[in-house]
Amino acid sequence: MSIALTDEEVGELTKPIRQGAAQVRHLRELLGCEIKRRPDGRPIVTRDMLARLQSAETPASNDAGLNWGTG
Predict the structure, then answer these.
(1) Sign of the CA dihedral with 11 first, then 16, 22, and 24 last
(2) Residues 22-71: pLDDT tens digits?
(3) Which candidate, 5, 21, 32, 58, has a CA 20 to 30 Å from the CA of 64?
(4) What is the Cα–Cα distance from 37 to 8, expressed in whole angstroms?
């Protein structure tokens, strides 16, 4: 498995955006970090960037705001 996402994976993440510069802008907003570009202008997104995004989206409590933890 590659460290960086494939063009297809980046395409799924930025759907329906197809232009490299527009994908970079969208990913900057989505991931909240600087996005490097390949020589052809396409964004470089690492799997680590996605993992950080997914861990930040994990809610600390349920929708009702109840905390079922102890103490």
Answers:
(1) negative
(2) 999 999 999 999 999 999 999 999 999 989 888 877 655 555 555 666 65
(3) 32
(4) 16
DSSP 8-state assignment for residue 47: H
Q: Which two tokens stand for residue 46?
A: 């690492």
CA distance 11 to 2: 16
How far is it, in rounded angstroms, from Cα 45 to Cα 21? 13
Alpha carbon of 58 to those of 9, 17, 39, 49, 61: distances in Å? 21, 26, 34, 15, 9
What's the CA gap between 3 and 22, in Å, rounded? 22
Q: What φ, ψ does residue 18 adopt, rounded to 5°? A: -120, -25
